[in-house]
Amino acid sequence: MDHIKLIRNKIDINHIHQLIIDQSCGACSVFVGTTRDHFEGKKVISLEYEAYESMALKEMGKICSELRIRWPTLKHIAIYHRLGSVPVAEESVVIAVSAPHRPAALESVSFAVDKLKSSVPIWKKEIYENDQIGEWKANMECPWPQFTETSSNAFEYSLCKIERQVENISESKLVQIRTSSNN
């Protein structure tokens, strides 16, 4: 069974463990991502997470489906992500699986963490001790274009794959452009 959830309260790791444990499985693997107290010499006091919630849940469901294709012996999968303010040392994300054997459990959790960071629309802001405004952080795993102050108003056309180029179009013609997230 798959358990996916975005929550605004503290994540209960024991509850998640109870969701995934199964008598037929000899392995449970759990990743717990927590808020650390520093970043690049700055003292972090909390993280703030925001999400495009319906899309995030859909993408989390896709991760579960992909895990089941790659590791068909997985019994239960849980992906919980916290939204709102997460103080230092508290859990931001928990990904847990159960499987009959250790390799599938360990490998699938590692894959799920990377996939979550690269595809789920959840954004993180670090709040520092001497800067209550904080700073939005980009995931290095994320393939989305990174915007800077100078590029935030300009679309980066060079990142788009052109499948077919149309020539000799008069200004009176309407042109339809199709885009795809497939690379």
From TrEMBL:
It catalyses: 2 [molybdopterin-synthase sulfur-carrier protein]-C-terminal-Gly-aminoethanethioate + cyclic pyranopterin phosphate + H2O = molybdopterin + 2 [molybdopterin-synthase sulfur-carrier protein]-C-terminal Gly-Gly + 2 H(+). It is an enzyme of class 2 (transferase). GO terms for molecular function: molybdopterin synthase activity. GO terms for cellular component: molybdopterin synthase complex. Transmembrane segments: none annotated. Signal peptide: none annotated. It is found in: Cytoplasm. Keywords: Cytoplasm, Molybdenum cofactor biosynthesis, Transferase. Pfam families: MoaE (PF02391). Its EC number is 2.8.1.12. PANTHER family: MOLYBDOPTERIN SYNTHASE RELATED. Catalytic subunit of the molybdopterin synthase complex, a complex that catalyzes the conversion of precursor Z into molybdopterin. Acts by mediating the incorporation of 2 sulfur atoms from thiocarboxylated MOCS2A into precursor Z to generate a dithiolene group. Belongs to the MoaE family. MOCS2B subfamily. This is Molybdopterin synthase catalytic subunit. It comes from Drosophila mojavensis (Fruit fly). The lineage of its organism: Eukaryota, Metazoa, Ecdysozoa, Arthropoda, Hexapoda. The gene is Dmoj\GI23778.
